[in-house]
Amino acid sequence: MSERHQEFQSLLKSNAEAVETLLAALLSGDMQTDEIARPERLLAAMRHGVLNGGKRLRPFLVIESAALFPNVERDTALRIGAALECIHCYSLVHDDLPAMDDDDLRRGQPTVHIAFDEAAAILAGDSLLTLAFDIVAAPETRLPDATKTALVLALARAAGIGGMAGGQALDLAAEKQAPDTDGIVTLQAMKTGALLRFACEAGAIIAGAPENERATLRRYGETVGLAFQIADDLLDLTADAQTMGKATGKDADRGKATLVSRRGQAWAESRLQALVKEAEALLAPFSHRAGILIETAHFIANRRN
Amino acid sequence: MSERHQEFQSLLKSNAEAVETLLAALLSGDMQTDEIARPERLLAAMRHGVLNGGKRLRPFLVIESAALFPNVERDTALRIGAALECIHCYSLVHDDLPAMDDDDLRRGQPTVHIAFDEAAAILAGDSLLTLAFDIVAAPETRLPDATKTALVLALARAAGIGGMAGGQALDLAAEKQAPDTDGIVTLQAMKTGALLRFACEAGAIIAGAPENERATLRRYGETVGLAFQIADDLLDLTADAQTMGKATGKDADRGKATLVSRRGQAWAESRLQALVKEAEALLAPFSHRAGILIETAHFIANRRN
């Protein structure tokens, strides 16, 4: 393992620990202003769905895209990252439900509806989604109100019918009728792409950066989003369940079409390398400050679990 | 029917129509900035869950509490009311699911998971919850960013684990183990009270009113919230399914304790009248401008469906 790669892994790990610590605090029994009670079992279900030692890639992207700009407090970016992670985790909790993807296992642990019950999983997801907007708007998030409004709007658009939730609807429909290639591209841009794009754009929003830099980070986010999805589909095709900590080969079992299953492994590997080059080119204006985000693109394209 | 009562009913109706029109526009096929696609079937499920001719009591409270203040545009209050209604409707869609209250019928129509399927109902609820925050933050909502931030925070707290979602968790738990009287009060304050309180407080937030007026409208909201719940429990005990357009007597069937089942119909009726008096007293500082909100308290306490 190269030194640069080791440094990256250690940064990923320290960020993930900071995210985990903040999320644990946000999901403690401490009530916030205006809250009437925090029912224990629901709180436990939320914690189960969130505090599971994930890689915290989305918060990492928020924190490191914000770190491109000298005026951003790291703790502030961390809070926005934690809000985004609440949305990501809620989507996993709901997607795992029997009526959706029906998964019993995630990261080697029972999913929320298995560890608790379906009602608890539905409500834990709902509460995590709601908490995300709470975190952005809360006074502890030290950002101008105009920035908070922009973040709420961008996050809602990324997560809602026009983004992630709509993508999950398309994904379920795809099991019944296989989409064409354009359909797969739209589905993936929504289901996984929208949150990853938000994660990268969020850095520029938090910094109050000019529109051209915001657009650049959006495009970087779209590029790593595409890479993430191709790497994921490739892993589903080639990895085994033990490495992944979850069921694999499920796409094929369900006859679910992916770009990788349509075009093959060689195409996927070459496309991944092209996307990494594209991400590097996009980040050129940020010169040496972009080192970590470039490394991130490599990591996303080459990850093996 | 008194003339005043007729005027009130006609105002309730015209507000509900305005809310319905706005919600239909927000749930049209027109994509918003940053949205990638609006999958048709999911959109149809969202519309089914929202555009069902409800009384729109919560938006009414937002609009009429905002109308206490001369500086508020009615259209702006309407948008916040519509956002709140999205939250209310999402909660009904999720509460009706088989894993929760398992209801097939709402307002005489099949519930979303019956008309579509469970996955669509879960995703429609998720998307409506997300849309609520989108509406508040969107540029079409002409409010200062500080006001939007305050609304997002108050709405999230009212809807999340410390409010409505937490209340639903307690309600499900109550079917297994009957809570004591304090437990019932907390459950109801969360499950239905929190959104009603927000609805009334929202008028003052939208207006940028001073803290004492905000506190007054909060207390008014708590008071009509209590009245709403007692009237609801009373109706469940006494009304028939045809008048209600939904199953009744369900609380008793489930052995679910309410304050009304514990203390009886006479207590409930006298308590309702006391709450109306309390609401009137709270609104005294707004003098003649408070006529509609006073009428609303009477309406909530005396409703028969």
Automatic annotation (TrEMBL), chains A, B:
The keyword Magnesium applies. CDD domains: Trans_IPPS_HT. Its cofactor is Mg(2+). GO terms for biological process: terpenoid biosynthetic process. It holds the Pfam family polyprenyl_synt. GO terms for molecular function: metal ion binding; prenyltransferase activity. Belongs to the FPP/GGPP synthase family. The lineage of its organism: Bacteria, Pseudomonadati, Pseudomonadota, Alphaproteobacteria, Hyphomicrobiales. One of its GO terms (cellular component) is cytoplasm. The keyword Ribonucleoprotein does not apply. Keywords: Isoprene biosynthesis, Magnesium, Metal-binding, Transferase. This is Probable farnesyl diphosphate synthase. InterPro entries: Isoprenoid_synthase_dom_sf (IPR008949), Polyprenyl_synt (IPR000092), Polyprenyl_synt_CS (IPR033749), Prenyl_diphosphate_synthase (IPR053378).
